[in-house]
Each structure stands twice: as C-alpha cells, then as structure tokens.
Specification:
By secondary structure, this protein is an alpha/beta fold. It is 35% helix and 20% strand. It has four domains: 154 residues, 3-Layer(aba) Sandwich (Rossmann fold), CATH 3.40.50.2300; 217 residues, TIM Barrel, CATH 3.20.20; 58 residues, no CATH class; 113 residues, Rossmann fold, CATH 3.40.50.
Length: 635
C-alpha cells in the first residue's frame, strides 16, 4: 500500500522544537514490510505552506491511507489536518496514533473522526491494519485499535507489545527532513532561554521506551512498560547517524535514559571503545547518580543533563510520588557542578498538596542551592495522568474537549486557564504563580555576565567580550539580539521586546550566566532613548497614563528604567486578572474608551507589552495625541 505519514506542526511556524521519531520508527518498519512511504514533517514548514504541500500530495499521489499522530498538545492541529483531508479526499482512510489516543480515546474518536485509532506502540498494530485492509479482512480482527461500527466507536482489545526493541530497524529520520531539522537548529538554538555556544547541530535518538516510575503528573502516552535497547544497538545507530549527517552531538529523548547506573557506564565505555568523540545529553533521576558516574559521563562527552527536580519540599515530592527527597536533589546539584556538566533544573508549582509553606520551602531550596536558572512552570494534569483523574473527580475539569483544546496553546493555558488543584484561594494561587515567573527573571540576575569590552556592529549585532562570573572564563563573540534576527529575520515587535536578556552556558565550567539586554550596546541605546523621554516628561511635570499594569518582567524592567518620578494619574489594562489591582500607586482600570476620554490630553506611556499595537490603535481612535510606546522604539 502507498501510505502518507504526517507529523503535525506544534506551533504554526517552521521550527526545530520537535522531531517525530515515533513516526520515523513506524516508517522504517512498514517500509521493510514492502509498503511505499510518503512522509511529511510539517514542523519543517509554516502552517499554510505545510497545508499546501499536503494538498498537493493528496491530490496528485495515489495514496491508499494516511497515518498521523502526536501528543495531546497537537489536538487542534490534528483536527485541522483531518478536516482538510476529508475535504480533499473524503474516502481516504485516516489512522490516528501517538499520545493523543492513549487516554480518552472514545472521546477523541468522536471529536476528530479518524477511521481508526491505534492504542499503544504503532509498529505492529499499524502493520496489522495495512495487512488487513490490503486483504479486505474484517478490521475488528486487528487488536489494539478503535474503529467504527454503525457510527459507534468500538475497541478491539489490547494490542501486541514489542518485547525486544533491538530487532526494530533504525528510524527513517531521512524521510522526515532530518537535514532541514538540523539546519533550522542554527536559528532556533540561539535564544533567550539558553545559548550553548559549543553545542552545534544535535540529532535526537531514543534508547528506551516509557518509564518505570509513576509520578502523578506524568502520562507515558500508551508506551506500556519500560523497555530498553541494548547499548550496542544504540551505539550502532549513533555511528550510522554520524556517518550520514556528519553531526557529532546527540540528544537522548528518553523519559529516562537509564534506571540503573550500570547502563550509563556501559554506554560511556562503548563510546570510548569505538573512539566515538561525540557530545550528548539526556534525562536522569537524581537518585541514580554519584560523583564517579558523573565524571565518567563527562569524560565520555556528556555536556548537559535535564533533571525533574519538581520541588524543594519533601511534602510535595511525596505527593507527586517522585520517590526522591530534597537532600538527594541537593547532592545531585553539587555533584553535577563538580563534574562541570551543564544542567537544567525544572520545578513544578501547583500540586494538590501545594501550600504557601511548601512553596516557600522550594524557593528557599532554590536560593540555598544557587538554582538561579530554575525553570518554574505550573503542574498540568495531562490526560492519562493521575492528576487528570483527580481533576475529574474534583469536578475541576467539566468539559474534557474544552480542556484538551486549552492545552494546545500552553501560553494561554498557563496565564488564563490553568487549573488550581490546591486548597489555596484562586486569587492567591494566581498571585503566587505570577510571583514565580517574576522570580525566574530576577534570579537570573544573581549570576550576571561580566562585560569586559563591547561595541555596536549594526542594528541587531554587537561584538562583546564576556566573562563567566563563576570561573572567569572569557569569550569574545558576536551577540545578536533579538535572537530571531540572527539569520536575517527582523525583530518581533509583537513580544516583550528588549526586556528579556539571554542565558548563556559557560564553555569552561558549564554554569549558566545571564546577559542583561541593557548591557548589549545596540540595545542600550534604545534604553537610553526611552529613559530620556521619561526624564523629559518628569521635567515638564506631565500627567501620565500608564499601560499596562506590568506583571511578568515588572521587577527587571523597573531595575533598568526609572519611572519613580512620573506623575501617574491612571493605569489602564485590557487583561482581566490585572483590573482592580494596584500598580504605581493607582488602581488599575479597564482599557476602554470610557476610561481613556477623561485623560485624552495627557501623555500615555505604553510599557513593554505583546498587545501594544491594539492598545495604541484604540488610543489614537479616541483622539489621544501624545503616546510614548516602548515597543516602537525598536522600529
């Protein structure tokens, strides 16, 4: 059969955020069985371009079946793809798989209307579907799928499990645009969150499936029990990939690379034995580590680790079923730094047992262990997790589809729709989350880059000699800011432009450091220009109306721009959570014509704001003449 395999785009633009290894495994497996594969990784294109390519394939190729899959966060995009395919070719069979079908499958079947949904690992089950359709046998004979019986979705029972991963052919990464993925990394790896100058292009691989642990917030997306590939099999794939792509950096995508330290040691030993000089990163648990192991990993090329610390409170760690304690996290931090391996510390806020006291414990733990670059996020009760079941029982999720749709835009979910699973009142829960986001930004400044020399090169670039505050290592480099301008793009004005600095991983000691935006010469002139305008307003004793009531980035912005002497007569905002709060000693009012008109002859100052343009247009439509807008000083 001729099969079209599709990987959905997760954010609407061409990106290297995600590579569909699961579909790549599926492609190589069914191709080996004699089926013809056409594959498209829609992450390699912007949304509209991807749809046009897809339309051409459906229209011109004699496709027998479409297979696509993704995580819950791809629900909306998968729905759009299915609707388009139905419009272009109504009778073309569609098979849906991946994490999105692992929970609430009947609901997903009814909402998205694929012909079949695969539950579990795709290779064996998908192959059975193709064989059954090709031979025109009854589809209900295939185990591990949902199908339709007189417009009613029916489950055929548990499907087969792949007990040994080694016999599987290596994933067909070439079919999903690995070259394009690697090239785009040159753009995407240079960002605000972390710049790792020595990283370069990185290929993702999978060395195991699922996870043996059962944290309350996690769902293993239908992958079943934890199984591992042999280290020899993993190294064989790495050798094949280095030969094919001339890339020597690898990211092990596994939820958990190894449940035992012996597996990691075997991996390191075989890398040395085969003289593979690569760099690599992975995710490990803090209770697996010791100093000797970390030194061995460092010597074998490990340059970055991702840790799910989640909390500094033992109460929360127990509630999450993490099976670790805070002392182990503390020891892990010290040992990883001693081994000079970079790491990301991830913390989660909002477990059902979270309280002001447990949150204070975590913040103190962060401070005590100098975790200035902790990534704080709120706990999300993904379908399939124990927290999801908790939310259903507590009636915190009343409409399942509406909730799933909300997860497709995490920024909107985190700021407007997140679920409060704690006993804290909603207003306190929201305030604490806001404080954590501000804490992220202000903590970064506890480990600031030392700037030795700097000069402006052009509108978006400065040459800088920066020094690590931890070890004194110096590096002279060109800093592009904003990062999206690195490859010829223009600054994204529809962002909080010029406020976020950049986090940089030291090439010597692997500690992170923060470069303030204001310290970058070509950006500093914008700060000076804005401050001069503010100082003039103070000198002229102008009455000022401020928009918006800054929340995120307020602390760091006020450190760099002095607004303290302005005569603020009103503060306006369009965001519901900021109305009636206090900002600059004023009660925040709704941004509306009614509240603009009384101040029409005053100066309106628009601070860094994603919605600046809508606000400016409203002000101008009501006759406001004097507007100072932060975002527009970057034009």
């Amino acid at each position: 059969m001729k099969v079209l395999l599709l990987a959905p785009n997760y954010n609407g633009r061409a990106n290297s955020d995600f590579f569909p290894l699961g579909l790549a495994y599926l492609a190589s497996y069914i191709e080996k069985l004699g089926h013809e594969i056409i594959s498209v990784n829609l992450n390699n294109y912007n949304c509209q371009q991807g749809y046009e390519i897809l339309h051409t394939l459906v229209d011109q190729e004699q496709i027998d079946l479409v297979g696509l899959g993704g995580l819950t966060a791809s629900y909306t995009e998968i729905g759009s793809i299915i609707r388009l395919i139905r419009e272009w070719s109504p009778k073309l069979p569609i098979v849906l798989g991946g994490g999105i079908t692992s929970s609430e499958t009947e609901l997903i079947m009814q909402a998205l209307r694929p012909d079949y949904a695969v539950i579990g690992e795709g290779e064996l089950i998908f192959a059975d579907i193709l064989n059954t359709l090709e031979k025109r046998l009854p589809i209900q004979s295939v185990r591990g799928i949902w199908h339709w019986d007189k417009n009613i979705p029916v489950f055929t029972g548990v499907g087969p499990e792949i007990k040994d991963l080694d016999p599987l052919p290596f994933p067909a990464v070439d079919k999903f645009g690995m070259f394009e993925f690697l090239e785009r990394q040159l753009e995407d790896q240079y960002d605000y969150h972390l710049i790792h100058f020595d990283c370069g292009k990185t290929i993702p691989i999978i060395a195991s499936r699922s996870c043996p642990f059962d944290c309350t917030f996690c769902s293993h997306a239908g992958l079943g029990r934890y199984r591992i590939r042999s280290i020899k099999n993993v190294i064989d794939e790495i050798e094949a990939l280095t030969a094919a792509y001339k890339v020597y950096s690898f990211a092990i995508y596994d939820e958990l690379f190894a449940a035992r330290r012996e597996r990691v040691l075997e991996f390191c030993a075989l890398l040395h034995e085969r003289n593979l000089e690569i760099t690599w990163s992975c995710q490990l648990r803090v209770d697996q580590l010791d100093q000797e192991l970390l030194y061995t990993m460092k010597k074998a090329g490990c340059n970055f680790l991702s840790y799910g610390f989640e909390s500094g409170s033992d109460t929360i760690l127990k509630s999450m079923n993490k099976k670790i304690i805070s002392t182990q996290i503390k020891n892990c931090v010290a040992m990883t730094r001693k081994a000079q391996i970079g790491f990301q510390a991830n913390f989660l806020y909002g477990d059902p047992s979270e309280s002001i006291e447990t949150l204070d414990e975590s913040i103190k733990f962060q401070e005590d262990n100098e975790l200035y670059f902790t990534d704080w996020s709120t706990v999300i009760p993904y379908p399939g997790s124990k927290l999801y079941e908790f939310c259903l029982k507590q009636n915190l999720i009343q409409d399942k589809i509406e909730f799933i749709e909300s997860l497709c835009n995490l920024s909107t979910y985190l700021w407007q729709k997140k679920i409060n699973m704690t006993t804290m009142p909603d207003e306190i829960f929201e305030l604490k989350y806001l404080n954590l986001r501000e804490l992220n930004d202000s903590m970064h400044r506890r480990q600031e880059v030392i700037v030795n020399e700097s000069e402006t090169l052009d509108q978006y670039n400065s040459k800088m000699t920066i020094e690590c505050p931890s070890c004194g290592f110096k590096k002279t480099t060109t800093i592009t800011y904003p990062p999206e301008c690195r490859t010829g793009g223009e600054a994204n004005l529809k962002s909080v432009i010029g406020v976020r600095g950049m986090n940089i991983l030291c090439s010597q000691c692997a500690r992170k450091m923060h470069l303030k935006a204001k310290e970058i010469p070509h950006i500093n002139r914008h700060y000076n220009q804005f401050q001069e305008r503010i100082d003039l307003l103070v000198k002229e004793k102008r009455q000022i109306v401020i928009l918006p009531a800054l929340d995120r980035f307020k602390t760091v912005f006020f450190e760099d721009i002095n607004l303290s002497h302005l005569k603020v007569s009103a503060v306006l905002d369009s965001r519901p959570h900021r109305i009636n709060t206090n900002f600059l000693n004023s009660t925040v009012k709704q941004l509306s014509a009614e509240n603009i008109i009384p101040h029409i002859d005053k100066t309106f100052v628009i601070l860094p704001w994603v919605e600046f343009n809508q606000a400016r247009e409203l002000l101008e439509s009501e006759g406001v003449k004097d507007i100072l807008c932060w975002n527009l000083i970057f034009v």
